[in-house]
Amino acid sequence: MIRKFGRDRRGNYTLMTAITIVPLMGGLALSVDYSELLRQKHSALNALDAAGIATAQQIVAGASDADTVAYAKNFFEANLGPVNPADTLLTVTLPNNNAGGGTLKLCSTLTYHPYFLPAATMLIGGGTTGDTTFTACSEIRLKNTLEVALVLDNSGSMNDLGSGTGVKRIDLLKTAAKQLVDTLALQAQQMKQVSKPVQFSLVPFAASVNVGPTHDLDGWMDQDGISPIQHEDFDWTTMTPANDPDRYAEKLNGVWYKRGTGWGETQDQPLTRFSLYADITVESGREEVPNTKQYICDTYNKKGNCSSGHWTTPEYIYTTSRYASWQGCVEARPYPYNNDDTTPNTATPATLFVPMFAPDEAGTLWLDFNRDGVNDATYLSYSYGNNWWADWPYYTDSPTASQRQSDMRKYFLVKPYGSKSAASGDGPNASCTTNPITPLKDVSQLAQKEEINDAIDAMAPNGNTNVPEGLAWGWRTVSSNEPFTEGRPNTEKGNDKVVIVLTDGANTYSAVSDSGYANNRSTYAAYGYTGLTYPGSGSVTRLFMNTSTDIGKTTYTGANYTAALDEQMQTLCANAKNSNVLVMTVALDLSTTDAGDKKALDALKACSSDSRFRKDPTDPTKPAKLFWNATGATLSDNFKEIANELSNLRIVG
Questions:
Q1: Domains, the chain, ranges and CATH?
Q2: Which of 111, 137, 176, 640 is the most buried (most CB within 10 A)?
Q3: Bridge partners, residue 581, by sequence
Q4: What's CA 319's distance to the chain center, in Å?
């Protein structure tokens, strides 16, 4: 029996199965855990990549840091598929520079819990628990877009030769500026997947800034005469019904209105600087009155009918035309709006922009004591620079220069045909010497790049230097706020707003010795007359508002005006930089040994932002300033350095 049992082979398959079941089941366990591990890793990686792209879009849209991190976590976990969110950990590293570009980094850690512990230990380790973790990261390079305002000095001194060259400064500047535009345009053309990758605006400045005469009907311009500076030097009280019952002025709720039928279609409309430009007229010639010939009867018959007569000769009337149109320059807004990009609105009248209108300054005046229309022998004469219109002719006493300058009646006298013309540059547009602003243009598009380059070529020097007004309007061209709205939203991340300011001299505002006359104290420019104030401003002129005690509020000298403009500039620079605007400044041909130039150099350097990429060569622990002290000979190279700085901002990742 024992021998029979030994010869029996019927249980071999069972034994073999028992022997092989362990490796078979182990292999199955390995296959299951390995497949599941790969599936979870793949799902986690897909979720990580998708979360990176979605989160980058949130950053560009302006989400806060906290909201961005929360969004990334929620998006990642929602797209994990078979992975339990409790088995993952997501870390989010936001770009160092949330104002413009940088790298977004998302890292996820996945903990895998195996189904079969011994097999998992054999396959992937994991110690006694069998759990294993793996970490993966995804980096998203935020593609920078650029908006650059070229704020370029067009004052008269730019006609001087650049040091070390035989070329005018303005021509050197044109070449360097166009080279900068062309360099960035070539880079922009590589960013096919980004709309408007690099945009440039141009702001020529001198004593004022020209926003363009086509904006005369825009809502951000003071259309109703409500700005506090609208009537800074205008005395409408002289236009009374007693003076002219058909055309007089009436003030209602702070606004002056046209009253009387003599105004025609504009009756009851506000009296503003725009209306002045429209109403000031000159006789421009004579023209025949159509269909005015008539038959004149010489004799009549008994029935009263004409028996003989003759035709009259043609009649003529004198025609009139507008004396001047607004050329586009605006005044500086009163503090604090002169130094920021606040959106203009009628609810806050001081935020509105007011067209420049240089008053007619007092000239020779004959007096008509007898009011008989014949000027008497006595006359007054003053030597004022901008004498472009006739004074009111019917004074009965000796008016002051201030009265003659501000008396609004004179502007509604038609200037006779053939009268002496004003001197060159004089008139209501005096101190408006620059070409209009060119708003942001996409230089990746050839036609728009040519618009910027053509505007650069058209620059022509004339006038004083008012850097703060230029800088303010440079900021406004890249801001998304009105007046110019071509810029991307101010909160958009991955976009840099840059203002490049170049000047060849200190801020200047021309003083005049006129104490006892009209009290102007200066020539007229963007801050008006420095000796005059607007209603409600107290005794401080606009130029001196919010300046330090170092600025004499009744010191009417060129040096004091320069100091006041310097302080306005520093306030403006600080405000712009606090609004994430990068400010680059370039001094051209300023001497470090001249006290005045040295002060201007220091002011421009203080105004500039810090570089994000370069260190100060004299102190490597500090960032370099975005400031260049250029000469005529080095200007082109300096602008190449600026191009490199801007190229580092615009990363094609």
A1: 19-142 (no CATH), 147-214+429-509+558-649 (3.40.50.410), 221-412 (no CATH)
A2: 176
A3: 497
A4: 42
